[in-house]
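Q: I'm building a small set of examples for a reading group on sequence design. Run inverse folding on the following structure and report the sequence directly after it, with nothing in between.
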């Protein structure tokens, strides 16, 4: 880890934009030779003689204005001018102050104090649960909604504590990554229906898309990146982010695993009709999403670079309100039958409450368990 840290810190040194980089002297030379050739063709034999003895050491900034090229000046080989350092171009938002590998722990005794620290140090970067970078242009696929499926019916509020820890680590990371983002906490109302992770994620997508976001992270509450070079952003092809978790010794438990965290552009998520809404209880919905994405829509199975996308998971048991779904295998087998009519195009729910906190947007929904699609129809019987 120590060795890796050095390399990663090095890699973080701010890279100058290409336009600021010193020009290759050979390019300068050949460019200048072209100009010279033109001069020769115009009968400037004298100039040619002068040039052939001078060293080709001018920077492109002196040579480039070819039209104003004064042969006398070249013949005199003036002192190379040191170009004025330009203001860094702010046409797009680049990460600022990334630190590489991070020490993550979930010491619950320190949670309150740490969250207080977070609030003090980061409050000025947020408004209405939204982080907007200053003085730069956010690229389309870096308008990021982080959508968290959530319901805390535990007595000790363990999921809520996980969420606070999630914010404690994620907010500074995403702030350094310097994009426009908002965390959407999508709460399933407290009733006796089974938990439905996928449907909550579809709802978060629909709401955040209407709010103007272009990139969607479907993100479990208990996963925290261990390196801030694990950049949160979308591409045209969706990506599975959480392939390498401490719980599985940072190995893929199986190659097509797609749970935990996935990232989609709006176009890609619309194309696959989102998640299935009909996985009630634990398991299967993530593999179903993988089938829709890879076998169905023919996207590639992509993940960020393994070395930089390690995650730490907060250890937890499974809630009694989130028992393994007994139908999950049947539903998964029939994924291609129900993908067409079960997803974003059949999303029904009631919005119970919506508010903005400092660091996140808080949404509570009723998932209408009694109005679900009958199992026989989903299975194609
Ligand atoms: N979750 C929740 N309340 C629950 C069950 C699950 O908020 O009662 C959310 C939470 O974001 C969690 C995700 O659903 O990270 C996936 O559930 P879980 O962590 O139990 O799944 P596993 O770790 O087995 O993949
Ligand atoms: Mn979990």
């Amino acid at each position: 880890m120590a060795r890796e840290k050095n390399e990663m810190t090095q890699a973080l040194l701010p890279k100058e934009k290409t336009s600021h980089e010193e020009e290759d002297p050979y390019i300068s030379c050949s460019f200048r030779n072209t100009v010279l050739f033109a001069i020769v063709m115009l009968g400037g034999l004298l100039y040619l003689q002068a040039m052939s003895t001078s060293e080709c050491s001018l920077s492109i900034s002196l040579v480039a204005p070819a039209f104003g090229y004064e042969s006398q000046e070249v013949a005199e080989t003036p002192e190379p001018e040191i170009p004025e350092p330009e203001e860094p171009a702010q046409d797009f938002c680049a990460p600022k102050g990334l630190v590489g590998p991070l020490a993550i722990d979930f010491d619950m005794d320190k949670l309150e104090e740490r969250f207080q620290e977070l609030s003090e140090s980061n409050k000025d970067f947020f408004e209405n649960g939204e982080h907007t970078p200053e003085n730069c242009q956010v690229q389309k696929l870096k308008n990021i909604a982080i959508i968290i499926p959530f319901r805390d019916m535990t007595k000790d509020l363990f999921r809520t504590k996980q969420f606070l820890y999630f914010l404690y680590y994620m907010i500074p990371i995403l702030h350094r990554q310097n994009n426009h983002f908002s965390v959407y906490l999508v709460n399933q109302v407290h009733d006796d229906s089974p938990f439905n992770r996928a449907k909550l994620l579809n709802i978060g997508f629909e709401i955040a898309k209407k709010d103007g976001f272009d990139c969607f992270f479907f993100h479990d509450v208990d996963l925290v990146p261990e390196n801030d070079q694990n950049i949160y952003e979308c591409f045209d092809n969706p990506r599975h982010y959480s392939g390498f978790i401490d719980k599985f010794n940072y190995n893929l438990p199986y190659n097509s695993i797609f749970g935990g965290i996935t990232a989609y552009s709006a176009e890609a998520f619309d194309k696959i009709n989102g998640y299935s809404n009909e996985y009630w209880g634990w398991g299967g919905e993530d593999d179903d999403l993988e089938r829709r994405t890879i076998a169905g829509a023919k996207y590639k199975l992509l993940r960020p670079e393994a070395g930089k996308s390690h995650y730490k998971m907060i250890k937890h048991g499974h809630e009694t309100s989130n028992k393994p779904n007994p139908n999950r295998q049947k539903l998964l087998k029939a994924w291609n039958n129900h993908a067409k009519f079960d997803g974003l195009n059949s999303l029904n729910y009631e919005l119970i409450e919506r508010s903005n906190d400092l660091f996140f947007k808080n949404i509570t929904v009723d998932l209408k368990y009694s109005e679900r699609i009958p199992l026989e129809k989903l299975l194609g019987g």
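The first strand starts at residue 126 and ends at 127.
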